[in-house]
Design goal:
Layout: H1 3-7, H2 11-19, H3 23-34, H4 38-51, E1 59-65, H5 71-84, E2 89-94, H6 98-101, H7 113-116, E3 121-123, H8 132-148, E4 153-159, H9 164-169, E5 174-179, H10 184-189, H11 192-197, E6 200-203, H12 211-229, E7 238-241, H13 250-267, H14 269-296, H15 298-312, H16 318-328
Parallel strand pairs: 1-4, 1-5, 2-3, 2-4, 5-6, 6-7
Helix pairs in contact: 2-4, 3-8, 8-14, 15-16
The chain binds guanosine-5'-diphosphate (GDP).
Length: 335
């Protein structure tokens, strides 16, 4: 869609259509919040402000795991199960690498082909973006939009190989890691950092000949988590085995997600988590705006490049160059 068409969106009409669950309006609203055009930012903000009272009602679940673990198969099947139970399911993705590798993890909707056909499911590919910050900002805003459109389950998929899983854990209520059957070596493939974010670990592909290996992997996860959780109160992730392909264990997985959500809500931790996320969100937006405005100035951009060259050549220390940059925006040396 061209920039002009986007900027012609009538905000009042869009607010009404999004609230009524109109998918076309929702898709357009998301395109507006993803837009990089400065004049769209203002309109996007206006839209989000208007829809804010309608947000916050969904269960927000992050789903991560190494490529090939079965995330999209699992989301496809879990999503179908939830739709069959009367839920409205939105699936979003955070994949900061997609713009470079040329293919978004969800760019091909056939990966969730059956869910994509459902009237009560909404699948949105990862936004293009060259920074994780940019991608996560629009994903947070997209969560708000799909909630305003009445989706009561939001699944946010991310590949567990970078920084994106931390970013996603900062925008969801419950975090699920999809693991693979297989012994020790496989476990090494999942980084400790990813495990530490998990509320639920689902060892996938636990069917047929794989069942034994999946059970062994589940045991190993439990052991690893036991060690990781030592000394940490309030953190005891659940490990279970599932088969996304054969739709085994997915009801139990969802029950665990709901239990976790409920216990967070009851203890007040959910509210705390969401308020902390809102503050982190504000900080991110502010930092991005500050940096964008700084880099937007021709003079500053020139200096920036020059200083980077100096640091690269070893003529200047990173600290000295950063100090110089700070002076450019009026930060006093003592600050
Ligand atoms: P993703 O990269 O994590 O999204 O993984 P995919 O969902 O694309 O799955 C990777 C491969 O594993 C595909 O060939 C799937 O068909 C297969 N797969 C996914 N779930 C299962 C499962 O429960 N059992 C088996 N046997 N294969 C599965």
């Amino acid at each position: 869609m061209g920039g002009n068409a986007k900027s012609q969106i009538d905000i009042d009409a869009t607010v009404k259509s999004v609230r009524s669950g109109d998918r076309v309006a929702l898709a357009r609203a998301i395109t507006l919040v993803e837009s990089q055009r400065p004049d769209d930012h203002h309109r996007a903000q206006g839209l989000l402000d208007r829809l804010l009272p309608d947000t916050g009602k969904a269960i927000r679940v992050g789903i991560s795991g190494v490529p090939g673990a079965g995330k999209s198969t699992l989301i496809d099947q879990l999503g179908l199960n939830l739709v069959a139970q009367g839920h409205k399911v939105a699936v979003l993705a955070v994949d900061p690498t997609s713009s470079r590798s040329g293919g978004s993890i969800l760019g091909d909707k056939t990966r969730m082909g059956r869910l994509a056909m459902e009237a009560n499911a909404f699948i949105r590919p990862s936004p293009a973006g060259d920074s994780l910050g940019g991608v996560t900002k629009t994903t947070r805003e997209t969560i708000a939009l799909v909630e305003a459109a009445g989706y009561d389950v939001v699944l946010v998929e991310t590949v567990g190989v970078g920084q994106s899983e931390t970013a996603v854990s900062n925008m969801v209520d419950v975090f699920v890691v999809v693991g693979l059957p297989g012994a020790g070596d496989e476990l090494q493939g999942i980084k400790r950092g990813l495990l530490e974010l998990a509320d639920v670990i689902a060892v996938n592909k636990a069917e047929g000949d794989n069942v034994d290996r999946a059970n062994r992997a589940a045991m190993e996860y439990r052991t690893a988590l036991h060690i990781l959780a030592a000394g940490q109160q309030n953190w005891s992730p659940v490990v279970l085995t599932v088969s996304a392909r054969d739709n085994l264990g997915l009801d139990e997985l969802w029950t665990k997600v709901l239990e976790r959500h409920e216990s967070l809500r009851e203890s007040g931790a959910l509210l705390k988590r969401r308020s902390a996320q809102a503050v982190a969100w504000m900080r991110e937006i502010f930092e991005q705006r500050l940096l964008a405005s700084f880099k937007g100035s021709r003079q500053a951009a020139k200096q920036w490049t020059q200083l980077e060259d100096n640091v690269r050549a070893g003529d200047m220390t990173p600290a000295a160059a950063a100090l110089e940059l700070s002076r450019l925006v009026g930060v006093k040396d003592s600050e």
